[in-house]
Each structure stands twice: as structure tokens, then as C-alpha cells.
Amino acid sequence: METAAKLALIPGVHVFRAGIWKPRTRPGSFEGVGTRGLKWLCKAREETGLMLTVEVANPGHVREALDHGIDILWIGARTVVNPFAVQEIGEAIGNPDIPVMIKNPLNPDLKTWVGAIERLNRMGFHKLIAIHRGFSFFNRSLYRNAPMWEIPIELKRLCPALPVLVDPSHICGNRELIPGTIQKALDLEMHGLMIEVHHHPSKALTDKNQQISPDALKTMLASLIIRNESGPPEFESKLEALRSEIDKLDAELLEILARRMNIVEEIGEYKKANRITILQIRRWNQLIHERIENGISLGLSREFLTRLLQAVHEEGIQRQLNVMNTEEKLQPPSHFKIDEHTKSDQDHDPRNQGE
Ligand code: PEP
Ligand code: MN
Fold first, then answer.
1. Which residue, 193, 246, 186, 146, is CA-closest to 7?
2. Ligand 1: distance of its center to the CA of 74 in Å?
């Protein structure tokens, strides 16, 4: 009630979201208060005038929510992947005038998301709203669920009439990242936000790191920058899609480097067991020639490749020295300096000498 009362005073807040039945990964965590909470929500609506929305995951939830006159239903990320569940929920709602929000599935699969929207649309539902809540991603990142903005952007392109909201709470998993994410949502012309708010975030029974207080919400919404034409929307969308592509590639790049270093270490162990020296200059010279020619044929510059390979090699040697338990730290890079053929202009730059 306290949260609802404070929210109702914030300009731009129209709907009160509440999980009555909470899908939790492991049993034993707080799974929502269940049906009795619906009465509390009705009271909150009565006192604040806010509309209500609740997550429904099965026909039983739908019946109870509709019996209490919940205004908008939402289908969560774990339910949307299952066409049987989406079909059953649609049938249980029955009335196609009820607004339904559809979160994206956990995995970055636009087809599944569109499939659920299409299924409900074919059943006659015409007040559909998509919610972008980010995607599980193989790589650990800053975000709890990687935003992968190119996916909601593509959804907007495929379904231009469909409103798309953004749920920064589940994307970020962490309240510090929320302001930047909602600004981005605005810059990408998303239609609205679904944000988790708690009158006392540190006491929240679920996901407390991503909850913000009503005051914080008020400040955040007030400080959003409404941009004047920073470029036509197609320009912004394309740019964002390209940046998102870069983010993914960088994550892969780091993963590959880490894997490479692990193999280098394995070689170190093997050399150690067989009493072989770490640095084998012939192998390194041959490797660097091949890599550089290969990289040049892919359009990369000799200078860049030389610096990159040198750095990778130095780290590799250091990792092998660690394996050998050698105290000595690597002194770069004179004793395995790249030969004339692969030398870059940088080698002649006096600023690079005698570090
Ligand atoms: C929620 O909104 O509280 C929730 C459980 O979200 P999701 O389905 O996106 O994980
Ligand atoms: Mn949640």
C-alpha cells in the first residue's frame, strides 16, 4: 500500500505491477503470497486509481485474476516459450478485449516471442503489448539479462503497430544500471517502461538488488533526456544494432582469448613434465609470419597485427612461466623481438625505445 500510494503521485505512472504468483528458479524461495494478495491489489487500485497488472502462468491464475477484475495480464519469460501454455492462457482469458503483455522468452529467440504474440493475435486479442526484459546470454556480462537491443528493434520493424515496453529491472538485475538503460529505451523509441519499485528495496522478498524506491523512480523519470532529433529513428536503430553486434563480438573475442590462454598453460604443463624450455623462437617466428599474412588477407593492418600478436605472445609466455613456478618476471620484449620482415613503423619510433 505504501509503495502504491507513493507511485500514484509520480507523473507518468499509470499501472501498478505486482507478482502474486512468482516463478522462481528454485523451490523454497519466496513464490508470492498467492490469491489473497489479489484483494490487497484491489484495495490499492481503489485508493490510488492505478490500473493493475499481474503475471499469469496458467488458466487457474487467469480465472482468479479476472475474478478480481485485474486490468492487464502479463505472460512471463518462462511461460512464453511454451505454445501449449500460451494457448491455454489465451483460452482461459476468453475476452479478446483484455490487454495482454508478453515478455520475451529467456533465450534470445525472436521467433518464439513473435510466435506467442501471433498466437494470441490470431485468437482475437487486439490489445497486445510486448515487454523487453533482456536475454540469458552464454557470457557473464554487466547485465543480469543481456539487452541485445537488436531483437526488440527487429520486433518493432516486424510489428510496427505493437507497443514495446522495456523492463530495465530484469535487464539490469542491479539498480545502478537502470538509469542508463531507461534512457537508452527512450532513445530507441520504446513505448514505455515496466520497473520494479519497493518502498524499502533492501527488504524486498525477491530480486532486491534491482528494486528502486519510489523516490528514486521519481528522480530517474524526471531526469530522462528527451532528445530532439539526434538523427532519424532508422539511423539510431541501425547504429544500435551495429553496436550490439560489436558487444557480442567483443564478448566472444574475450572468451576465445581466455580459451587460448588455457591451452597455452596446458602446453606449459606438458613442457614442464618433459623438461622442455618455454620459449621456442623458431615456432614463434613461423607462427607470427603465418598469422600476419593471414590477418592482412582479412584486411587488418600489419602494425595492428604485430602489436596484437606480441601482446598475446607475451601473456602466453608469462602464463607458462607461472606454470614453471619461475619467480622471474618477463622483460618484454627484446629477446623475442619480431624480425625485420614483420617490423612495424612503431619499432622505429624513438618514443617506443628503452621503456
Ligand atoms: C517479473 O517481472 O517479476 C518476472 C518474474 O519477470 P520475468 O518473467 O521477466 O523473469
Ligand atoms: Mn522479478
1. 193
2. 9
Please indicate, yes or no, whether residues 78 and 204 belong to a single structural domain of this protein. Answer: yes
- What ligand is nearest to the CA atom of residue 81? 1
Tens-digit pLDDT profile for residues 12-44: 999 999 999 998 878 888 999 999 999 999 999
**Residues 88, 205 within the same domain:** yes
Cα three-residue angle 159-222-77, rounded to 5 degrees: 40
- The reply to whether 343 falls in a domain is no
Cα 259 to middle of ligand 1, angstroms: 33
Residues 254, 106 share a domain: no
Burial classification of residue 277, based on how many CB atoms lie within 10 Å of its CB (0-12 exposed, 13-18 middle, 19 or more buried): exposed
Distance CA 65, CA 47 (A): 19
In total, the chain counts a number of residues equal to 355
123: CB partners within 8 A, 6+ apart: 90, 91, 96
For 75, list phi and psi in degrees, rounded to 5. -105, 125
Q: Is the CB of 132 under 6 A from ligand 1?
A: no
pTM of the model: 0.68
Residues 175 and 249 in one domain: no
pLDDT of res. 270: 87
Q: Which three cell numbers stand for residue 32?
A: 508470492
Any atom of ligand 1 within 6 Å of the Cβ of 198: no
To which residue does cell 483484455 refer? 98
DSSP 65: H
Taking 50 as the pLDDT cut, the residues of the chain under it are: 327-355
Q: Say how many Å lie between the CA of residue 77 and the centre of ligand 1.
A: 6
Q: How many domains does the chain have?
A: 2
Going from the Cα of 212 to the center of ligand 1, the distance in angstroms, rounded, reads: 16
337 lies in some domain: no
Instruction: Name the residue of 15, 55, 172, 207 whose CB sits within 8 Å of the most ligand 1 atoms, as the mutation to test its pocket.
Output: 55
Ligand 1 atom nearest to 169, measured from its CA: 2
Query: Is 133 touching ligand 1 by the criterion CB < 6 Å?
Result: yes
184 and 40, same domain (yes or no):
yes
- Is there a single domain that holds both residue 207 and residue 247? no
- Is the CB of 170 inside a 6 Å radius of any atom of ligand 1? yes
